[in-house]
Design goal:
- With 320 residues, this protein is α+β, with helices and mostly antiparallel strands.
- It has a single domain, classed as Sulfite Oxidase, Chain A, domain 2 (Alpha-Beta Complex), CATH 3.90.420.10.
- Helices cover 22% and strands 20% of the residues.
- The protein has twelve helices and twelve strands.
- A hairpin with a 2-residue loop joins strand 7 and strand 8.
- The longest helix has 12 residues.
- It is globular.
- The termini are far apart.
- The structure holds ligand MTE.
- The site of ligand MTE has 16 residues, from loops.
- Ligand MTE binds next to loops.
């Protein structure tokens, strides 16, 4: 298999140099496919009939400069993964128990081609690219991450949602034996679910990610397949996806069910709509440590020129 990521900006520009050297060494030693097996990550673009379908999605315009990326070690060690633990380091550690072998994703609901797709099959027809996106957590910290993935729209083109599909509902893996808080039925309604309106899901910024920093996605960051919606608070970017349902009606998602007054369905980043218990006016970029200068939060996390029209005429305070 030819190992190739089609990227707009070379990994060498953002990845910390040691990591990049390691990756090169792995590639040279022909070890990458072994590393990624059985869920082979990287598509052979020479046999990628679909790539032309979405090549019009101009990722360069959507990407930040990779020089802004948060150090990879920070992103890997400061994670929210409530199935495993309620603290960031604990979640990172405990998530290593997730079993990502033989992964497949069920596609169900209002769709022409319901199916169960193995990750390998899903990726075989995609060209993977780097997308450098801002990521803003509802807890008011932020980072910049170079994801590796493909637009959700490419999957939609493949499975063909029916005209009756108005929402997309995503469900995370349910592995009680590996997930202490699921096993003990603590705090949230498991499995973790999230949802988007169908036009949000089809927006070119919305990604299915399988990697970051040019590497396969670490377990704690959502391996083997996660959603990334950069203009929404991070809790929308669901990890370890096993099911995608095309639905007629808006789903009741995990956080909205838990605290409807605090976590809305839309969860668009908005400095003018405070969380009931804290301001969303500014954020703490993770790269600079706990006492680093705060940054003013931007409407739609800085992607307003690309996504604001999705919400024309909507009251963003009421539909937060
Ligand atoms: N997905 C699942 N399945 N479980 C979770 O607890 N946390 C969400 C989101 N996706 C979460 C999840 C939250 S609150 C955030 S901020 C982001 O993942 C964090 O992503 P990261 O840990 O890769 O930074």
């Amino acid at each position: 298999m030819i190992i190739k990521i089609d990227k707009t900006i070379p990994s060498s520009e953002i990845t910390d140099p040691e990591l990049f050297r390691n990756r090169r060494a792995l590639l040279k030693a022909g070890m990458v496919s072994a590393l990624l097996s059985p869920t082979a990550l990287l598509a052979d673009t020479s046999t990628s009939p679909n790539s032309s379908d979405w090549s019009h999605l101009d990722v360069a315009d959507n990407s930040l400069n990779r020089g802004n990326a948060t150090p990879v070690q920070v992103v890997k060690n400061y994670t929210n993964y409530y199935e495993f633990a309620f603290d960031k380091q604990g979640a990172t550690h405990a998530a290593q128990a997730l079993n990502t072998d033989h992964w497949s994703v069920e596609i169900v609901g209002e769709v022409e081609k319901p199916c169960s797709i193995t990750l390998e099959d899903l990726l075989a027809k995609q060209t993977l690219k780097d997308y450098v996106y801002r990521f803003r957590c509802v807890e008011a910290w932020s980072m910049v991450v170079p994801w590796v993935g493909f637009p959700m729209k490419a999957l939609m083109d493949r499975v063909k949602p029916l005209s009756t599909a108005r929402y997309v509902v995503f469900t995370s893996a349910n592995q009680p034996e590996a997930m202490p808080n699921v096993r003990k039925n603590l705090m949230l309604a498991w499995p973790y679910t999230e949802g988007l309106r169908i036009d949000e899901a089809a927006h070119p910024l919305t990604l299915l990610a399988v990697g970051m920093y040019g590497e396969v996605l670490p377990k704690q960051n959502g391996a083997p397949l996660r959603l990334v919606v950069p203009w929404k608070y991070g809790f929308k970017s669901i990890k370890a996806i096993v099911k995608i349902e095309f639905a007629r009606n808006a789903p009741l998602t995990t956080w909205s069910r838990f605290a409807p007054d605090e976590y809305g369905f839309y969860a668009n980043v908005n400095p003018n709509v405070p969380h009931p218990r804290w301001s969303q006016y500014s954020e703490r970029p993770l790269s600079g440590g706990f006492f680093s200068a705060r940054r003013k939060t931007e409407l739609f996390n800085g992607y307003a020129d690309q996504v604001a029209s999705l919400y024309d005429g909507m009251d963003l305070r009421r539909l937060f």
